[in-house]
Design a protein that fits this description.
Spore Coat Polysaccharide Biosynthesis Protein SpsA, Chain A, alpha/beta, eight-stranded mixed beta sheet, three-stranded mixed beta sheet
Length: about 300
């Protein structure tokens, strides 16, 4: 395709079975196929991802396959940006399924909302492989890539942004910066927050973020993630990622260490760990894990 309006970019690693569901969702879009392209970035998969894409290309002439040998989500996203030709770049996780009007509603909003958003995002509803536990406090759902700000379109508040499973950038905005390849998961490190660093930069330049409730996706939550141990590990690495972001933004090292120590030494959070309220324990426990990761990163 030479002039698609929007490019849907899926970065994938060894999830050919889930990737099929994401591609099926894009195959069923209400937006005409000649107005969008699908870019699949195969991030060094060792399963049958390429064979799956080859098969779909017979049905979807607008599917572009690109192999990226350097592992890393940020690297794969930047590769997708270089390949994509659309005015808008819509990132979709390889284990997410878009609603039928996903692309059409995004394009309509970008062309009608004033001022024009720099970035857009919609709800992310979970598909639980097993029922979530009773300790699943609404506060921690973001760590499971769940996002729901209600049924009304609105601007994201300051310091709140779309999540990576359903985030759409204007191409001109994204080309100015791209994703930091010092962050982003790569199969070894669990450092993340590359999206947050990019979004903070865009926000500092005056870019606005728009929440579009009709542009929803469903996101797979595998059973191995539905545990306290996984959640606390996730929070620990999120804290380390937060420290890297602050270092990149020039926050003084001593200021970072004081922030980490204050978070770790919060007596109320430690007392909460012996209280009978399971949701409160998990909520405060995630903060302790986050600040412990943040503090540790300041010594690397």
């Amino acid at each position: 395709m030479t002039n698609p309006t929007i490019s849907a970019v899926i970065c994938t690693y060894n999830r050919a079975d889930r990737l099929c569901l994401a591609i099926d969702g894009l195959k069923s879009q209400t937006l005409a196929q000649d107005r969008f392209e699908l870019v699949v970035v195969d991030n060094a998969s060792t399963d049958n991802t390429k064979a799956v894409c080859d098969d779909y290309q017979r049905q979807l002439p607008n599917l572009v396959y690109r192999y990226e040998p350097i592992q890393g989500l940020s690297t794969a996203r930047n590769t997708g940006l270089r390949v994509a030709k659309g005015d808008y770049i819509a990132y979709l996780d390889d284990d997410a399924i878009p609603c039928a009007s996903w692309l059409e509603d995004i394009v309509t909003a970008f062309t009608t909302v004033e001022p024009q958003p720099a970035v857009m995002g919609g709800p992310i509803y979970p598909i639980w492989e097993q029922d979530p536990p009773g300790w699943m406090h609404h506060y921690v759902q973001g760590y499971f890539t769940i996002l729901d700000h209600g049924a009304q379109p609105r601007w994201f508040p300051k310091d709140e942004y779309p999540y990576g499973a359903n985030m759409i950038y204007r191409r001109d905005v994204l080309l100015k910066h791209g994703f930091s390849e010092e962050l982003g998961r790569d199969g070894q490190s669990l450092l993340s927050d590359e999206e947050r660093l990019l979004n903070l930069t865009i926000e500092a330049e005056g870019g606005k973020f728009y929440y579009l409730p009709s542009a929803s996706v469903q996101h797979w939550v595998p059973k191995e993630r539905i545990s306290r141990s996984w959640l606390l590990k996730r929070c620990y690495w999120q804290g380390r990622s937060g420290a890297v972001v602050d270092q990149t933004l020039g926050v003084p090292l001593m200021q970072q260490r004081i922030k980490g120590l204050r978070g770790i030494c919060n007596i109320k959070r430690w007392v909460s760990q012996i209280l009978p309220d399971a949701q409160r324990r998990i909520r405060t426990g995630t903060w302790l894990a986050w600040y412990w990761g943040y503090l540790q990163q300041t010594f690397y």
